[in-house]
Amino acid sequence: MCTSSSSSSSSSSSASSPDLGASSASGSDADADADALPEVFSPLQHSKHTSLFVSLDERTDAAKAGGGRGVGTGREGDGPRIDKINSVRAELLRADPGLNQSLISSGTTISQLFTQDKWENHRSVRRYWTALRDIAGSTVFRRVTPPCLLAAFWAACCCALGLAAPATPLTLTGHAIALLLVFRTNQAYARFHEGRALWGQLVASSRDVARLTGAFASVSSQATRDEAAGLLRLVDAYAWVMKGHLRSGRTREDPNDPSAYRDDPAPFVRTVLAPDEADSVLLATNKPLHVTLLMTDCVRNMGGDVPVETRQTLLDAVKELARICGGCERLLSTPIPLSYTRHTGRALMIWLLCVPAALQAHMGWLTVPVVFVMSYLLIGIDEIGVQIEEPFAILPLRPLCDTIRRDVRLVAEHYGLRDRLL
């Protein structure tokens, strides 16, 4: 059996079920600004429970103060806008520590679910001025600054030494560079889109399992209702273990290194499952697979008052959950061929290092800032492709997990099973 007794479930529901949703990061000052940074996890807004993320308090507090490495870029004198960016980043990190901190955007738009208000702000024609104003807080700008400075330094050397070369080779090869960038960026976005589509299917399949389970369990025997409640709890847990499975993270000697991120599903799983079930899931080598096995046991153990066709439909839905996990694992384990990525980077840098020799005879020392801007624009395109190539480090997985939890509990309440959930 995959469930604990209903009495233990109900007795622990009030004591061990903290609201694990993320709170909004926007304040009154943000509401007054038409271009204010959007809320982090709308439409799911909950109270803040930071006890689960005690180890992150020091980093997030530093980020709010403008000193968090990889989380914010604020420095003394940067002004209130950068402080607001740091605050949003810090709130996002506190709520979803499994995000790759070094890839969090200044507006965190890629790591949240949009609402109509956010779309309206996104479409505003003031976005061009806002983008220029906030360039210092841009993740892409911060990450590509070193190679851009290298290109600018080489441009200064060319100007000082008087190196000159014809522009014809650059003109002929520029089209090839553009094709390399376009192809790689398109492929990276296709992977990002597929990752989001898979998680959309996960939300839909979870709703199907919950809906069918609740509908037939509400008119079934006590034993079947117990199994149904256990299946609903496992549907909730599956989203959290999937998120942890896809964000196993990296380890670094320096705990403040922004690339040392890791998603731990244990606090969330233990609020959903009974202790023995939670232990078995968390000790499993492949946690999503283990949860699907427990789901299959629940469906198999349902009484005869549930039609065979319904049980087969539930098994098909569980199969779909496993298929989604396989698709996500494929994206995570197989990048765009490394030779293509490396050749694109090499070709782009060689081309940019040749540009100063063709420009300095006509532009003089103005070549230095021009090369820096050109480098930022072109290297930034390649950097965006690299960032979205592995989608699960930056997709809004936390709000999607919150969505599944909300819908599962809504179904349980509708069919009278809410008191059986932990």
UniProtKB/TrEMBL annotation:
This is Uncharacterized protein. It is found in: Cell membrane. GO terms for molecular function: chloride channel activity. GO terms for cellular component: plasma membrane. It holds the Pfam family Bestrophin_2. Signal peptide: none annotated. It is a multi-pass membrane protein. It comes from Pycnococcus provasolii. Residues 1-29 have a biased composition (Low complexity).
